[in-house]
Amino acid sequence: MKPQIRKRAVIVAASALVVTSVGVGVSQAGPEYRDAPPTKARIAALFDGWNDALRTGDPEKVADRYASDAVLLPTVSNRIRTDHAEIVDYFEHFLENKPVGKKIETIVNVLDKNSAIDTGLYEFTLTDPDTGARRVVEARYTYEYEKRGGEWLIVNHHSSVMPEG
Known about the structure:
This protein has 165 residues and is an alpha+beta fold. Helix content is 35%, strand content 36%. It has helices at residues 3-23, 31-34, 40-56, 59-63, 84-94, and strands at 66-73, 100-112, 115-127, 134-148, 151-161. It has a 5-stranded mixed beta sheet, covered by helices on one side.
């Protein structure tokens, strides 16, 4: 194979690998991805997997993204959720509004090879289950992640509606 053709083949293969890796949720990725050192981009992409879990409408799929001892300070509830059953309960009600999240601003701090924090601003488009009316809720968030058993899990999640708005 000529050097120029080989170089193009390597670039195409590497590009395909990057596109494939970005599109795969971290918890569903193969060991080569899970064992890779965390980067800001990889930690920020964990939100996409969480958001995809919301879109399934299944509160268990969303709660499975949280560690068993996670703490959730949710956007639209006054109760702190501290175990799997409480987190499922919250999402059973929240998912009735068919939420679709979108990050507006994100700041990621990789603390070490097994922990990171993603904080910033996001918005949710919510659909009223009775009327179909849509509204956008702007909120601030913090996700604290830990890598446990090879999986990146949420150990602390705080979300609150923007105070000025």
